[in-house]
Amino acid sequence: DAATLEKPAADLLLLPDTFTNHLAPEAGHAARAVLADAGLTTALPEGPVCCGLTYVSTGQLDRARTVMRRTLDVLEPALDAGLPVTVLEPPCAAALRTDLPELLPDDPRAARLAAATRTFAATLEELAPDWRPPRVDRPVVGQTHCHQHAVLGDAPERRLREAAGLTGDLSGGCCGLAGNFGFEKGHYEVSVSCAEEQLLPAVREAPADAEILADGYSCRTQLDQLGGHRSRHLAEVLADHLPPRRR
């Protein structure tokens, strides 16, 4: 079980973003297994949290500020304990890193959470530098999330894939779903065109044994709904290749 925030043995707080918590819990369970294999103890928040990006991207900035303040209230014990905050969903990590301090410049907790935010791969690289991932040794194809490109960078993810023997590059374009954009009336054709620019052709041309990776839930949804391709978070792929005693 995850440690409570009061226990100093926790190495990090794993943030259950809305997508992971309600739509893709398998990614969260996989991340905890991999982090545990790396010798890291995870804490979980004691209440619901949300980065507020849904409201930011639809122009509901006052609502976004309310949601962000509520998240800061929940995470304040973790911030006071100096815990890194690991976020599995790239757009949520990007929102906490940039949108949060921009929208709440007068709340010092916002800057603290922005500085504490880490991606899954960055967490492993920083907190468990001597850990070696299980070998997967397969070609890889898929999507690096746009927010990862624009805000976070993907160097730790590239190094983690290389260490696991996942060879090849992920697509650099946009999957086209873009949060709620692809679901809105009048956007379908543009959404599909974006996916057909790089992502879907790359997946169709990939070897049969290729792992299809997409850390973003929107990207995984687009791959599934447009092409019937099952893609996974990097944490899921690594967890599947842990020896049984280490899962």
From TrEMBL:
Any one Gene Ontology MF annotation carried by this entry is: metal ion binding
Stored Pfam families:
CCG (PF02754)
Which ranges carry the Cysteine-rich domain?
21-95
Keyword field: 4Fe-4S, Iron, Iron-sulfur, Metal-binding, Repeat
What protein does this entry describe?
(Fe-S)-binding protein
Instruction: Report the source organism.
Output: Streptomyces lonarensis
